[in-house]
## 1
Amino acid sequence: MSEKTGPSNGGESGARDKRASTSTPILPVLAERWSPYVLDPRPMNREHLVTVLEAARWAASSYNEQPWRFLVAERGDAAEFSRAVDCLMEANQAWARNASALLFTVVSRTFARNGSPNRVAEHDLGLAMGNLCAQATALGIVVHQMGGVNLTKVRLAYQIPEGLDPVTAVALGYLGDAATADEELVKRDAQPRVRRPLSETVFAGKWGQTSPII
Ligand SMILES: Cc1cc2nc3c(=O)[nH]c(=O)nc-3n(C[C@H](O)[C@H](O)[C@H](O)COP(=O)(O)O)c2cc1C
């Protein structure tokens, strides 16, 4: 497949159109999602925030365990929001403090039905996050996920019980104005979006052998 789909050069959407350049067309919400650093520090639309969490709720999960949980801090609640920012690694605080809402994702490690370990708990949390990202994109909300979190701080600050573990932080918000933003963040947002090709990702027959479907 040689034809690429992606941002047009200098089209009406301008420099911040970060649509993926895909080898074949994919759903617009998947191609249009990206992880921006320059955010506009305005309040979150509460209804939209609930909607993205509802989308996450409807993800598939092993035995329908729904091992995901979310802690939410809205920008509008200054004290709570600042407590959440404080749980991020410093490099992430620098830009994520402009988010409209911050989430911490939490996973339950054991099945509620029998107490046995859930080997795929984080997989299922990832599915929920995929749903959340797609729904957010459809609503014009940008999402930037973070592994750079002080997990011990999160556990203590929110009194997360044993058996459940914080995993990531998630910044939700709106694209900021590159003209007035920190130069370093603008530079990061200008980087092209790249991915390993399918030929190095999809194998058949034996490990490392590109599948003939590609
Ligand atoms: C689980 C996870 C953790 C991430 N952690 C961080 C992080 O701590 N800081 C950061 O700036 N970006 C982080 N990112 C964003 C990735 O760098 C980004 O998704 C990746 O470069 C691909 O870019 P795109 O999302 O714009 O397609 C994380 C993304 C995911 C899914």
Note: The beta strands are 68-74, 101-108, 142-146, 164-173.
## 2
Amino acid sequence: MKKLSVFLSIPIGVLLSSLLGSCDSDGLDAIDIEVPAGYELSAGTSTVFLTSSVAYDSEAPWVSGDYLTRFVRGDRLYDDVRTSTNGDGGGLGPVYAGYSCGSCHRNAGRTRPGVWNDNGSGPYGFSAMLVYITRRNGAFFRQYGRVLHDQSIYGVTAEGKLKVDWEYQTFSFPDGDSYELALPHYTITDWYADEIAPEDLFCSVRVPLRHVGMGQIMALDQTEIEKLAAKSNYPEWGISGRCNYITERGKLCLGLSGNKAQHADLTVELGFSSDMGVTNSRYPEEICEGQFQMTEGSMMGLTYDKLDISTEDMENVDLYMQSLGVPARRNVNDPEVKEGEKAFYEAGCHLCHVTTLHTRPRGSTLLAGTQLPWLGNQTIHPYSDFLLHDMGSEIMGAGLNDNYPSGLARGNEWRTTPLWGVGLQEKVNGHTCFLHDGRARNFIEAIMWHGGEGWASRQKFASMPREKRDAVVKFLQSL
Ligand code: HEC
Ligand code: HEC
């Protein structure tokens, strides 16, 4: 296969000692890594050169023929608003969180979350978020299950509504510039059944993830990730990443997707079932968690005897997501972007947001067995190690800790978010809310929420002069 990535390499040790005298002063050693000069091809042959609002939502160049037909069908199923009828095209509810995949992942991105619009679910609003709830001892609530469904079909009560109260605090960079962080405090109101006491409740709020590079993630050379976990140990930076492992269909798998790397696949079946109430072969039960007595496939006088989506169609959705193109970088030769790129390495961001990885030779296999060989043997630039890192519990007395474990991931551990395409989020979705719960309103806030293993890196960034910090932001906008 033709290799599309060509880049010059300069060892960062040389760069750092020649350009940046400050390294020795804080005891952080320069890491020997290659700084690639100007690679645009984020995902090899899957790279697309789009900068518009459909930059995340267009097929990779190799998608054609039967695959294109299936891609288009998958795209449609992904975006079609489900109705509450039974069977094909229906199945919404009785309670749900979203009414189509695209309702939360607009343009295959991150729909503006209700945390900021409506301070939560809003009275009538649609939040585009997932709210995970558990008892403080880790057990699920019998009447509510794992996800709080804050929406419902006609005649049914939503399980509850999320409310966010923001606590604001202003901080200063060493050079005197200031920035503000906003810490969310979540409560749940309007419980449809038993009131859950706040002392007995942990709730973790998640805004959707962008679908950039889903196929590449599924095709990752997993031994490379496991080797990275063994290598990801930089005591002087306080960084040590580790893999999440989860049991899927009775098999122990490496977790790659989700904010805590808590899933091994693209959760199509789970998304239909748990997020929307659309029954399928893997999850045939309605998700009303005891709100209704389902007797012999009927509920409220309606029959619920058919599955709402076929496995073939779920595979089309899987195919659609895995065949999406990954936007190429932009402005790679802009001097400020280049300056920001150097600063990104200088601040050690790349130790977690790993720039270059590879996919395995055979590419990816979809949920019903279709192969996508085009995803194989690619050099990709996801800006993630797909590992878990302790992101701390200190900043504003809470940090990013959500007290919600998933697989091996603890409350304070998160998967490094891949940054490819992040610079287009504003164009695609019209907002710059970042981090798992959308609390950061811009890139600076996202960085300044990095605690724990990210602390040394954040401090490096904070100690840079304003022009350099701005250059880092410019660089992120070029991804
Ligand atoms: C209610 C909003 C909502 C709906 C509806 C929804 N999602 Fe998501 N999706 C999310 C959120 C929030 C996350 C992050 C979850 C986490 O990390 O815990 C996510 C994560 C994902 C991921 C993981 C992405 C990654 O980068 O690791 C995939 C894939 C995905 N969703 C696919 C789907 C599909 C397919 C559907 C439709 C069947 C769907 N989603 C419907 C909100 C939604
Ligand atoms: C210790 C590993 C680590 C280091 C070092 C690190 N990050 Fe992160 N980064 C993460 C993790 C984990 C998340 C996800 C946290 C969350 O969502 O709560 C993240 C999230 C982000 C996000 C938000 C992405 C999104 O779409 O929500 C941005 C932007 C970001 N990091 C930029 C940077 C920059 C710039 C640096 C260097 C100054 C840096 N990071 C250093 C691990 C790291």
Note: The radius of gyration is 22 Å.
## 3
Amino acid sequence: MPKYSSEPSRDLGQPPVPAALQTVLAMIGSGEASSRALIARVTGLARSTVSQQVDALIALGIVEEQVISESVRGRPPRRLSISPGAGTIAVVDVDATATQVAIADLSGAVVARGIVRMPVDRGPEELLGAVVDEIRSMLAAHELDPCRVRQVVAGLPAPVDFQRGRVVRPPIMPGWDGYAVGDHLREAFKAPVVVDNDVNLMALGVAAQEQTDTPLLFVKVAAGIGAGIVTDDGVVLRGADGAAGDIGHIRTSVRRDVVCQCGKLDCLESVASYRAVLAALGIDSAPTDDPRHASRELARLIADSDAQALFRIRQAATDLGEVIAMLIHTLNPRTLVLGGPLSELHDEVLSGVRAAVYERALPLATRKLTITTSQLGADAGIAGAVVVATREVFSAEGMAQLLSAPRG
Ligand SMILES: [Zn+2]
């Protein structure tokens, strides 16, 4: 079972791809093997069979073969790779105040990045409209054919019905409930779309790019709070309905009677999120001309050893640590990575969470546990979306689509 199963609306009408062609394309697409000889060795296919498939892929314009050095005798060594003209993937990472977008080639190398500064509460039509415009202008700037977008992946800071590509009762995204994000993007790019919770994508991005030991528990502390879990097999643990890791609305143990945006009292998100900390300190988190205003303001207070700021940060870290300790007992991860602006900007958060986890969790679960922050920072979501997109493109169905796609 592939991690990202295909969407119900995907066209399944393509003829099946011959097994050898599929194997060879998957090897080159994943970067596992980059020469005819190596593909033959790894797959056990005959050299002549491999060569036949490679020639067919080159003729289709999907693969290219470049001479990498001149050799004195015999055939010079060549490297196989996915042709930049074979297509593009487009990825989107929606956040409360700004949405990142990127385009990449099919091997996952990012070609261009962009940002759409618009709060999510403008609603899906307006935000996704701006996202589509931004991606189209990036494609145009790099002379990439918009008809050759092969896969779109979007991450949203909300519970996502993964199978249908819809947002389900998002606490911080008014106007998005039930909106068919997948259909909107599919219509715009005429390409398959995967929509996922942003934290799942970030967890995958961290696992892939930072090569952390798994199981990985990734916790994002931003306007909302969420967790993503990557298993030993590199798979996101999403539970029966895709709600696994939705920890922002777990009730904290200290009673403060803070009303959360979800309508309940004392949710983790209402007391320990970046937004909650900023609000408690009277820092305006609404986007202004200066997108770094809030983080700079908070950093200044911490640097000045402002008692209120230190107290709020430490309290948030303790509340987070308490919930994370429960997760560590449930999941026994090898690595815990904290992401999002609150944990990335302030060591106090990392040390506070660490202290709470070690105080509450039993030694067997913490003995080999690494607790750290993400080096990818705000790029984790985009990195994970690219991982998902390339896996989709080189899945059996994705390859069938790629091989049958019109080109010329
Ligand atoms: Zn809540």
Note: Residues 249, 260, 262, 264, 267, 269-270 surround zinc ion (CB under 6 Å).
## 4
Amino acid sequence: MNEQLTGETVELLQALIRNQCVNDGSIDSGDEFRNAELLRDFLEGNGLEFETFEPTPGRTSLVARYPGTDPDAPSLCLMGHTDVVPVSPDGWSNDPFGGELIGDEVWGRGAVDMLNLTSSMAVAFRHLVRTGQRSKGDLIYFAVADEEAGGIHGAEVLLDRHWDVLGADYVLTEFGGIPVNGPEGAALMLTTGEKGVAWRRLKVRGTPGHGSRPYGTDNALVTASEVVRRLADYKPAAQIGHLWRQMVSVMDLDEEVRDALTDTEKLDWAIGQLTPMVAAHAHACTHTTFSPNVIHGGVKTNVIPDEVEIDLDVRTLPGETHDDVQAHLRAALGDLADRVEVDVIAETAATESTTESPLWQTLAKAVSAAPGGSRIIPSLVTGGTDSRFYRNKGAVAYGAGLLSPSVPIEEFNRRFHGHDERIDIESLALTTQLWLDVVADLWN
Ligand SMILES: [Zn+2]
């Protein structure tokens, strides 16, 4: 691996972290213009043409295209988001925005989600341009804002408006590259699919009255609390998809538990045998999930509330439709279904890219040739990434990366949006090299 490039990835990551592009979901947070400017300065001066987009003030995204030699060859986009989620500083052992290099780890918010990838992609991209390594197809570097709040100031609108500039046949982005040690040896999980989003706002109505006389009243908050309880208790049927089977095949588990994880009859028992974080993941990969996460209601302590709103985070499995979600809600609410008005907050079906692609073969080759070489396994991500916007336009998109064995999957998950987020230099080196290896092989 190239030490010079690793050093560049470390430094760029530190600078991206220090820019604190914290996206709390509000329109004036994020300030991704800072990271867009930083990346532009980093890439500038190599004969590249840039375009920046600012669909919302301050929410800047940047794209650079390195033209290939054959206009008919498929293009590859390296897409990294530049925003990060907020921190609770009290839980951190070091400054979350210091970007400090402590031992062999870079610390700070974004170190694994996903400024590590965004920086390594920029370094690999600049190296290819500087050294004049033109591929057959176009190579695109896309530093995108607002991934952490759903892409409404980023990928979602930009791909709709500027497909002529941002369009690509293949896309690599977060997240993937976590090494696992399965029964048949080392494997690396890359993501090829993600669950759908079906967020709902549930409105429960009642009759207002004086809080001093609650007997026999129709209190919307009391009804809403029963709605919440039923949603929390709802147990939709399990579904064992092909991605889940692949993921289970490489889990380092007792054989009986592993077998049970793909058997709908024994799944509940098997999930009960797992550590809490793995259990939650296993449950989410095999079920449509319902999480009531926000409630608003009531106006005054002495007034019986006549309206309560509940925001419900529903995540759907591949193949599930709007009607399936409505049917789940009716089943969950039972005789209260008629008391609840349901509005859609956001809805995108689950997406998946085929592994029958030259890009998948290239990744398989690159990963098996990398230090500690392993095979790659497709997997499902339960949250949302910007991949879905590319997949919905027909591109093949994977979540990739190449982490060192010092970041086992549980540790990776703990750091993801968690305290003490950090990444080791070896992972940065491996990932930077991965992009170079992919570009070197994809069009051959
Ligand atoms: Zn991310």
Note: The first helix runs from residue 3 to 18.
